[in-house]
C-alpha cells in the first residue's frame, strides 16, 4: 500500500523519528493508526454498553460479553503471531 501524506503530516512524523520516538516514519504511522483504532474500539464499546444497558442487560451480562470478546481478540492475536 502506498500513502501520500501532506507536508504537515510528513513533517510531524519526521520530527518524531528525529527525536528518537520512533525508528522510522512507517513505525510512527503504524502506531498513530493503532492508537486511532484503539480509540474507535473504546468509543464503540461505550456505545454498545449504553445500548445494552438500555436494552435491560445488567453489569454481569456486560462483563460476560466483555470476557468473550477479549478471548476472541487474544485468539486473533495468537493466530497472527504464528
Structure report:
With 82 residues, this protein is an all-alpha fold. It has one domain. It is built from 3 helices and no strands. It has helices at 7-18, 25-54, 59-81.
Summarize the structure.
The protein is built from 3 helices and no strands. It is mainly α and 82 residues long.
How much helix, percentage-wise, in residues? over 70%
Count of helix runs: 3
Quote the average pLDDT: 78
> How many β strands by DSSP?
0
* Fraction of residues in β-strands: under 5%
Tally of individual domains: 1
- Written as H for each helix and E for each strand, in order along the chain, the element string is HHH
Q: Which radius of gyration do the C-alpha atoms yield? A: 18 Å
Which structural class do you get from the secondary structure elements? mainly alpha
Main β-sheet: number of strands, strand sense, barrel status? none
Shape designation = elongated
Amino acid at each position: 500500500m502506498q500513502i501520500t501524506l501532506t507536508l504537515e503530516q510528513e513533517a510531524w512524523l519526521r520530527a518524531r523519528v528525529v527525536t528518537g520516538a520512533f525508528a522510522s516514519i512507517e513505525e510512527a504511522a503504524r502506531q498513530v493508526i493503532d492508537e486511532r483504532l484503539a480509540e474507535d474500539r473504546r468509543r464503540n464499546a461505550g456505545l454498545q454498553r449504553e445500548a445494552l444497558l438500555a436494552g435491560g442487560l445488567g453489569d454481569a451480562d456486560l462483563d460476560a460479553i466483555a470476557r468473550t470478546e477479549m478471548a476472541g481478540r487474544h485468539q486473533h492475536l495468537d493466530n497472527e503471531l504464528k
